[in-house]
């Protein structure tokens, strides 16, 4: 009996037989997440229905030294939930209860398989909602949001997942059940909650999530401003933020992404626009009205040739329709594309966009830019045709060069999609060996055998056995006597 | 030559002679921080002037296996900077440069010895400020704020230190210099930045801090509302938050703290008040005006018998004067007192205040309550006279019982003062052994010899050598075979 067969037998006894999949056709369903160019069929899929069952599966994996990968709805865009060929995929979608709704304390407690939008739907009757809104919010799970520290258009004002999770119950990589944080805004001791959020399944599996609920705004107003160029739109963005206005969202689309959206959903954006900005304000009605006038004036001053204000919710949805369809719409103008995700300081926007266009032109590649302009989170869509020899490679080169531009300007290689399997190789461009080694000290502390989502986040796994490894070699301060350092 | 003599000689060669203190009279200056009932004279004080010098000192301590404690301005209230009798105290107050001010990116880079208020003073000409405002902001250091994750009256709206630090350069407990985070709002990999902020000197020493700058509000309005009871004031607080208003601050004082403030600074609060609320709104003028009317109405409905609105900055300062002097003012009505620091869900305020009064009455002890009502952060001042036998003990009992009440109501044993040496013994009331052991996995990963601020935060230091200790005994899941667990 192979290791996996033995493990399957143990899990079928510990869970229920129908919660353990080993049939190859069934396993194929889980071969990839939202980043479909990586595909791996797992050896086994477990479908636990409780925290205890998650702990049982992890414990069995630890005993058998079999790697395991957690998966929520599988909508991630960095391959964070890509299975391990010899490992167990732990799917949390059966853990789908809203355990507790406490609007009076602005908290909800949910299981990890609960869909992002369901939290908002449950809280809305009480006048609250769950603020982080990934584009996939209708299908992505809270557990996946926690793993990837997901963002969304409205995270400019409201912050990322990490700002909205106050407590977690997790199964650690050794199978122990641990409480991190709680309902209070801060807890004493180390903020392991913060370290866990965004750790992409490498520090354990969340089995219960306490989230902050946000009061529904009294008023929401949305405008679409059309500019001749991304330079002008970028200047408008900077002017708005510099004026002390924090819109709920400032989204930018360039000419190519407008063209794609137009082809797909006929959103009717102003003809001839080189860039559009969508600016949404929310809050008390008095604030929104006053600031809306200011935003309109600032867009005007930055050179907007047309400004449309949504008169009602239908018009508001029409404005958002182009933006929200943008990723998928790019399929209308290109057979294949890479969705890139990087961050730069907002003030570097015009410069970096120019450089992206230069790099793209130099390689004969088209790049459509769609992004959260307010917080400098870029989503360049690098277009290619996989059938034309060399195009995929050129697109990959341009995509990587865009991340270099982000780093060069003081930014980051991912804003909200995570590192996963896709960007692990870029981590050394951003971090020194010492920095990466320091992070892996934590991974090794929790997971000395490296069983929790191996191959993700870090380019080269640390051999945890070699403790105290960081004292050996590498760093000059370690090697040098005092006199030499000084 | 003793270990310390050898260490002193090495440091005098590596730094400069006047940066190393061993004279007992000089050392006595550093025997305590703001929590003066703990006093320990360190064996040596080092006054580094650069990150490299901090690394030199730490490296020397590691080589000599001598414990070290970092200290900023020494204003902490949990004894986090209490020296170790056989150890080195590393004072960061000489690292006092504002390295970079980038208001256009809403960032400043400062050394750890920079005073909190100096960041605001430097940023103000550009229209920005640094939001976290501990009461000690005129003297406390940014490095200390990072260590303790300091809060302040205005953290209700703006968040704690952890929400305003985006990057750190630290000297890890082994002497390595590491970068955590950066200028971008989020970085890939583990959020060790979050884990470091609030780790109270146990994970290393910050040598450079990148902070977020916040736009100065267009408008600020402040009111003082007087109520017959804390129940009424608590109800007003809940009503304000439930209405979706997020004031910059909501502070509450009860009858005893009002009496103390009156005796000390003659703040002229309304006579006969059983509780006062200070509510401050800031933001765009239109918002502040609209919300201020609503807050006034809600206070009125909750039973306020007098509401004073500050007409100008002088009147505003008069309102704040009573609150800001409250801790010190208590000295007017009691020779000794303990400043307690706990957190509860805001909705539990009336219930917990009643219980505190019951417990206090049961022990014949007076408690003055001053607190950040908006976020449920209590600062009960437990009054006693050390000259009366048994009073100190009774005060200590009541003080501990208050923390139990906080935990019982889903809160926390510290809101913003940290655990330090003072509350380490309360940690097991809030966390299970497994939870504490999980945190110490991180401490051990960074500091296997336990040299960085030993005796703080954790009640019983983990023996790091016993890895993989958490697999041995203790937790039932570890011991049990699968069948038993299920």
Automatic annotation (TrEMBL), chains A, B:
Region annotation (Disordered) ranges: 466-486
A GO MF label: FAD binding
Domain called FAD-binding PCMH-type: residue spans: 38-216
Alphabetical list of Gene3D superfamilies matching this protein: 3.30.465.10, 3.30.70.2740, Vanillyl-alcohol Oxidase, Chain A, domain 4
Known cofactor(s): FAD
Domain of life assignment: Bacteria
Keywords: FAD, Flavoprotein, Oxidoreductase
Protein's name in the database: FAD-binding protein
Upper lineage: Bacteria, Bacillati, Actinomycetota, Actinomycetes, Micromonosporales
